[in-house]
Write a structure and sequence with these properties.
Layout: E1 5-10, H1 32-38, E2 46-51, E3 70-74, H2 80-93, E4 96-100, H3 102-106, H4 108-112, E5 117-120, H5 126-135, E6 142-144, E7 172-173, E8 176-178, H6 188-191, E9 198-200, H7 203-211, E10 217-220, H8 229-239, E11 245-250, H9 252-256, H10 260-267, E12 269-277, H11 281-286, H12 297-306, E13 310-317, H13 326-336, E14 341-346, H14 354-361, H15 387-401, H16 404-412, H17 417-431, H18 434-442, H19 450-458, H20 471-474
Parallel strand pairs: 1-2, 1-3, 3-4, 4-5, 5-6, 7-10, 10-11, 11-12, 12-13, 13-14
Antiparallel strand pairs: 8-9
Helix pairs in contact: 7-8, 8-10, 13-15, 16-17
Bound molecules: cobalamin and iron/sulfur cluster.
């Protein structure tokens, strides 16, 4: 049978392709989902991955001598418009266009108008089925992932198709899929509908994937790295002695519970993305983010800092109990806690989520322009703020958190000079040196800075926290029905 020619495309939202300024966040991670799918091709097939975040992408390149048999495009909400234009162009050229990803799963009818085949949910089971049916000349218009989801015996991710030197964090990986929780604003329940919503690789496979990655630094993009404690403990035990430094995401309750976080620190965890989301319990309850309810956020920051783990705190503005004072209060709290980097979001009801359903039923959705669903624009009618107040407050929060004096204030909360210096340079490096990153990206030298990132992270040792770990943190409650994690996909730390 003739080998296939397959092109994989990750389109970018407009901001990421600006000729004037390229935010570093778009050059952090390679297109892992597409490299995962490419692994299902036969050895003789031809494949290439184009990531528009790091290289310009013509609708149809003039050099496209041969039309690919299949063009696979990954669709997020903010790149949907661009994805559909590319899809239309490649279909006109004669390729079979396959669209999948979060936005396709949320709005299949919208995507189907631009595709020959659409894919709902994760692709590990459906994409190989499609390839077999395509080769047999009978591809289906729709593939929906349902039963039988597993990460057992996955073929190795096609990292050879990734242009590593264009990324600051080429070693991103995911060893689980989904999350055990059900927050109302999250993409997760809609994306995994019809099958398992949280599952892991085997520990041996995850360790083998880590072994394949060069250098020291790893970034786990899992929604909740501690979501399955047994898996996580075995993973961290296997990583002992590997001398890795890693970053990841976990939830407030999983950090307080038991000693899993110590095991993570011993295995090399140096920075953690934590979804605090809001300081108001009423907002947590209304969002079904119960895993945060009743938890002592201060105990979380103290425990992580005591282990020398830097914190990237995630905060959402515009929930129904947020009034005009929410911005200053949140920034103040984050600085007081010595949080290293903060990721602020305007609450965004993604189609497919329960938050979307609620907002739509109440007539509160203000626009269906998906370009604006980037968590920086107000796309719904807030309850206690005007849309303009919400956007202005969001901008002010970013500004106020990253002034030089604010960075110094937050750094000062740490007990040791080493920890203070590390905090200062890390936070300043991300948000005060944007022009520097822009220049490095344009010079295509980003990968040269990966060792610098490793050096900063390796400096993180167990610091003496000025505040001893509270008894509450030590005696954190046993697992219950409350939820873990978060995830924003933004931010570097
Ligand atoms: C890493 C990441 C980023 C990175 C880079 C993305 C990249 N290079 O892939 C950066 C930092 C750039 C980023 C930016 C943003 N992100 Co982001 N990001 C993520 C994150 C944390 C991990 C993505 C990942 O690698 N997953 C692991 C791989 C294996 O899974 P996957 O990519 O989903 O691919 C699988 C399936 O989707 C499917 N699939 C995908 N495409 C196709 C196509 C076909 C044909 C088939 C068969 C299957 C298929 O198969 C793959 C294997 O199962 C996710 C959270 C998450 N858990 O997914 C958020 C997430 C995707 N981001 C999100 C958002 C909102 C953003 C931003 C708008 C945030 C912002 N304020 O700037 C921007 C804009 C992104 C854009 N380009 O439009 C949302 C998307 C919501 C939505 N409904 O679309 C998510 C879900 C976070 C969240 N919980 O809200 N992000
Ligand atoms: S805990 Fe995080 S990943 Fe899990 S459902 Fe909630 S927001 Fe989504």
């Amino acid at each position: 049978m003739r080998p296939l020619r397959v092109k994989f495309i990750l389109p970018a939202l407009t901001e990421a392709t600006s000729p004037f300024f390229r935010p570093v966040k778009y050059s952090l991670f390679p297109p892992l989902g597409l490299a995962t799918l490419a692994a299902y091709l036969d050895p003789g097939d031809e494949a290439d991955i184009e990531d528009e975040h790091i290289a310009p992408l013509a609708l149809i390149p003039e050099s496209a001598a041969a039309t690919p048999d299949v063009v696979v495009i990954q669709v997020y909400i903010t790149n949907a418009r661009r994805a559909y234009r590319l899809a239309d162009a490649w279909r006109a050229r004669g390729s079979h266009v396959a669209l999948g990803g979060l936005h396709v799963t949320a709005l299949p009818e919208e995507a189907a108008a631009h595709a020959d085949s659409i894919f709902l949910g994760p692709g590990e089971q459906t994409f190989p089925r499609f390839l077999a049916e395509f080769r047999a000349g009978r591809p289906q218009p729709q593939y929906r992932s349902t039963t039988g989801r597993t990460l057992e015996r996955l073929p190795p991710v096609r990292r050879d198709l990734i242009r590593r030197r264009h990324y600051l964090v080429p070693n991103s990986l995911v060893v689980t899929r989904g999350c055990p929780q059900h927050c109302d604003f999250c993409y997760k329940d809609a994306f995994f509908a019809g099958g398992a919503g949280f599952y892991t690789q085997s520990v041996d496979d995850a360790l083998a994937e880590i072994e394949r990655l060069p250098g020291r630094h790893l970034y786990f993009l899992d929604d909740h790295l501690l979501g399955n404690p047994r898996f996580a403990r075995a993973l961290f035990a296997g990583m002992q002695g590997m001398k890795r430094l890693f970053q990841g995401a976990a939830t407030v309750d999983s950090i307080l519970r038991g000693d899993l976080i110590e095991a993570a620190a011993n295995a090399g965890l140096r920075s953690l993305f934590v979804g605090f989301e809001t300081l108001a319990p009423s907002n947590l309850a209304a969002s079904n983010k119960r895993q945060n309810l009743g938890r002592d956020y201060r105990a979380v920051t103290e425990r992580l800092h005591g282990l020398g783990i830097m914190i990237n705190g995630s905060f959402v503005f515009g929930m129904d109990d947020d009034g005009p004072d929410v911005f200053a209060r949140t920034v103040d709290w984050a600085l007081e806690q010595g949080i290293t980097t903060a990721t602020f979001h305007i609450q965004t009801p993604y189609p497919g989520t329960r938050l979307w359903q609620r907002m739509e039923a109440a007539g509160r959705i203000l626009t269906r322009d998906w370009d604006l669903y980037d968590t920086r624009h107000t796309v719904f009618q807030p309850a206690r703020l005007t849309p303009a107040q919400l956007e202005a407050g969001y901008g002010r929060a970013y500004h106020d958190f990253y002034t030089w004096s604010a960075i110094a204030r937050a750094a000062w909360t740490h007990g040791s000079l080493q920890h203070q210096a590390k905090h200062f340079f890390y936070a300043a490096g991300w948000k005060r040196l944007e022009w520097f990153w822009d220049a490095i990206i344009r010079a295509r030298q980003l990968n040269r800075l990966t060792p610098l990132l490793e050096a900063v992270l390796s400096q993180v040792s167990r610091a003496e926290s000025p505040r001893a770990m509270t008894e509450e943190a030590k005696l954190a409650p046993a697992p219950d029905q409350r939820k873990p994690c978060e995830n924003s996909g933004e931010a570097p730390a």
